[in-house]
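User: Hi! Is it possible to get a structure for several chains at once, not just one? Here's what I have:
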Amino acid sequence: AQKVTQAQTEISVVEKEDVTLDCVYETRDTTYYLFWYKQPPSGELVFLIRRNSFDEQNEISGRYSWNFQKSTSSFNFTITASQVVDSAVYFCALSEASGNTPLVFGKGTRLSVIA
Amino acid sequence: DAGITQSPRYKITETGRQVTLMCHQTWSHSYMFWYRQDLGHGLRLIYYSAAADITDKGEVPDGYVVSRSKTENFPLTLESATRSQTSVYFCASSDRGTYGYTFGSGTRLTVV
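Assistant: Yes, the chains can be modeled jointly so their relative placement is included. Here is the combined structure:
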């Protein structure tokens, strides 16, 4: 069975600090997809990134970066120089090989960035 | 406008009543999903559908019914609402080719 664990329930940082959100997953599939979503206070789910299991390159998008390590089954998300607008709940999710099977979500990490 | 829309955005209903949450997508995506979001549980899958007239249970299907007579619609019905079904419900769709998932804005349901 698939499982996603986000061990950090809540994190609080001061603006401009760097913060890393952890995500550990379990799956028996050799091909799978990993996702991160952001849920701001307004409530919608905003897609951030999708990564397939064959692509272990780290990705950077502005202040956001993702570290995918198959050896430790982790897909961690780092925000550099955090801003108040980064305050949100962040979800890590996993889907099986076909890519259209249901997403399995972690329980989320609530990030509060204090000015 | 293209997209995925959920209605209503907010709903208050009484225990025992039947309520239907609507989900409509304009892309003709094959796959559609219903999730509920509760504090401490993240998002949990209720039902999903791979195509019209094909549905399957998720992690928490009890008390819910779905149908999919048309590709673009995937309504979720609570047959007899209970307080434990108070939650935020999200609908999502995905396309066979792109492996992307798009979520609706959610329906906040309160059962009193």
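The longest strand of chain A covers residues 88-95. Residues 12 and 101 of chain A are 33 Å apart (CA to CA).

User: Great, thank you!
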